[in-house]
Amino acid sequence: MQLIMRQASSVVLWLFTWPYHWTFKYYTLFPIKHIATVAAENNKSKIIKVIHTWRISKESELQFVKVASTVAAAAVIGVFSWPSVSESLWVAQAFWYMTLLLSIWAIILSSQQHTFLESMPLLIEASPKEDVEQNLKAILSAPTLTGADAEQLGTTTKYPVNWNMVYIWQCPTMLMSYSWATFMIALTLHVLKPFIRREPWGDSSKIAVCYVIVGGTTTLNFAWCSFWSYRSARKPWDKRHSAAPKTINTQVQDPGSGDSTGIAEADDAVTAAKGATATS
Questions:
Q1: Fewest CB atoms less than 10 Å from the CB: which of 57, 123, 150, 179?
Q2: What distance lies between CA 212 and its chain's CA centroid?
Q3: CA 34 – CA 213 distance, rounded (Å)
Q4: Which residues contact 160 (CB under 8 A, 6 or more apart)?
């Protein structure tokens, strides 16, 4: 039953993130799981290192999102100047307006998160425990678990992955990806209008045929390149962090429960993790 539920949740997650699934996994989900696992080891140097790597990657991602969303907004604004748009399907026009709305919010949210990251204290070896805690709370969740709470939730770490924080950190990329997806859907509906409305064969129909051929070919090319590029990166990552599921429970934690008790309280979790590893 648990296997079926796990597979079902994976399918739902893929359907929700299909325009950017691999980006979501390798830039948000896997790094956050890795940070939670390292946090349970109570090794300050390792924690600082993984947080520093995550911040650099996330800032780069947010910068890309701002640029790509700006281009999407500019593209759809340019589309509205086409004389043929007024004669297009209402669905296509609706998708273009959705593109504009999604891209604007992607720019706003990515700028907000980038500013938030800039306000977080930079970590060095001499950084106080409070600064490390602040970074962990921002990435994972505000509360940490006491030993009794961790045992009750069935996790060996006091920093369980909070899916609310996973959603928050991936949201700018989600909005940007959906903005481009809706743009392409609208463009396809607009070009295929002669077939949809069953208009007589003419220049518009010829253009639609060329669009289908070139568009289908480039889409397959994109899918092929994306699949093999991320597949080549998957195995090294999975090998490095194959122990992550054994040391962390990724179930949702209520952000409003519990108080932060500091990194030093992870000793019991580390001991439990070592005992579980020795037993297995």
A1: 57
A2: 30
A3: 43
A4: 36, 140, 141, 145, 150, 153, 248, 249, 250, 251, 253
Average pLDDT in the chain: 78
- The answer to whether the beta carbons of residues 139 and 47 sit under 8 Å apart is no
Length of the chain: 280
What's the predicted TM-score (pTM) here? Answer: 0.74
For residue 190, CA distances in Å to 70, 82, 195, 221 come to 22, 11, 10, 23
Three-class SS of 51-120: HHHHHHHHHHHHHHHHHHHHHHHHHHHHHCCCHHHHHCCHHHHHHHHHHHHHHHHHHHHHHHHHHHHHHC
User: Which of 117-131, 135-149, 162-176 is predicted with the least confidence, judged by mean pLDDT?
Assistant: 135-149
pLDDT in tens, 244-273: 333 333 333 443 444 444 433 334 433 444
Instruction: Give the pair of three-digit tokens for residue 20.
Output: 């950017």
Q: Residue 142 carries which DSSP code?
A: S
pLDDT of residue 272: 43
> In degrees rounded to 5, what are phi and psi of residue 256?
-95, 5
φ, ψ for residue 248, nearest 5 deg:
-150, 140
The position carrying tokens 């390292």 is 38
- CB neighbours (10 Å) of residue 196? 13
User: pLDDT per residue over 153-170, tens digit each?
Assistant: 444 456 677 888 899 999
Residue for token pair 């709470």: 149
